[in-house]
Amino acid sequence: MASLPAAENWTDSPGGVDVDSGNLSAALGVTVWLPLLVQGGNFSSSELGLPEASPASSQPRANLTNQFVQPSWRIALWSLAYGVVVAVAVFGNLIVIWIILAHKRMRTVTNYFLVNLAFSDASMAAFNALVNFIYALHSEWYFGANYCRFQNFFPITAVFASIYSMTAIAVDRYMAIIDPLKPRLSATATRIVIGSIWILAFLLAFPQCLYSKIKVMPSRTLCYVQWPEGPKQHFTYHIIVIILVYCFPLLIMGITYTIVGITLWGGEIPGDTCDKYHEQLKAKRKVVKMMIIVVVTFAICWLPYHIYFILTSIYQQLNRWKYIQQVYLASFWLAMSSTMYNPIIYCCLNKRFRAGFKRAFRWCPFIQVSSYDELELKTTRFHPTRQSSLYTVTRMESVTVVFDPSDTDNTKSTRKKRATPRDPSFSGCSRGDSKSASTTSSFISSPYTSVEEYS
Q1: Would strands 415-418 and 399-402 be described as parallel, antiparallel, or unpaired?
Q2: What is the DSSP letter of 106?
Q3: Where are the stretches annotated Disordered (predicted)?
Q4: What is the pLDDT of residues 282-291, one digit of tens each?
Q5: pTM score, whole prediction
Q6: Partners of 162 in the β-ladder
Q7: Helices (H), 211-266
């Protein structure tokens, strides 16, 4: 996380930047780089339970200037940048939650996971971004011991919940498209999955809460995580966290979306399929494309921060670089900005979310809500039964009356015979042979879904 410059680069002034070098990312906690504080003479290593430093390094350094004190104009620009992220992330994700929960048409399995993702992002922006930014600027913890524990605990929890909500969506899309005849997740099963994600997130982040401490000194108050076995244990923990909240879920989503992409875009569909089938295929492609963009955005935003943490932990001399504070603030801003892009992506790529945002901002003079937008969020217009899909070609048998010429005129009896199945083109869905039509239909349709869910 935010590795701080070496002690000789700063003094104990309130403007010093001695914010954490140890957490997963500054977004995932606020730990102070304790060795720097010890070397800087703020308090002894014995007070913190650390190994004693050499006599030379434990002496206070006098007459040193703090090269990391920023001019007012730069602080103003960083404050504006972080303020925009927090405002857009909090209000944008709250509107996403309202759009889904307030409209029955939007309550699908995918969208329930999007609610969980939006809640995680909004929470991280509201409770973590500005607090870490203020701590990085002033190197003073203003928020008390309880919030110190929360601040070190909750961000890891929120990031875990965010990325595993995306992973759950990827797996759900995979199952719906690759094996469409299997039943989809029920509302109860979806709640269980979401609850399990949060429980695992709490367990992963619990050590951060357990070992969080504050140190009150005459000149400042510090919030940090004191690991029992020192920096090596701390580094190991955060490498594990990076693997679990970044590398592993991105690998799973990369595999599933690659297979789904090959399935949806990789080949020609046999036969001359119907318009409704193409409508459903197009809708599925749109949803998958939107979620791929969400995942790629998350990966790009968090990559520089994870690289920053690993490099500054291995090569600690980088913390003495003149511009390291600006690198940290930039990488932390980019990581936090991942919380604000999803509502923008939904609005641009999904017509129902776009209609919902128009309704939310209809008070603006330049926003006009059309009747089509209102209709997009109404109750679904198609209601396929669970026993049969609206878009699945079914085998129909008809009964015809056939006159047998061997019968006499006075009997004129009729014999009902079963005729051969009609051409499935009666439904308007295919002019090819029935076998290929059925294969095509099962490729994309399911008795448990309709095109409404993917639009």
Answers
A1: antiparallel
A2: G
A3: 404-455
A4: 888 888 999 9
A5: 0.71
A6: none
A7: 231-242, 248-265
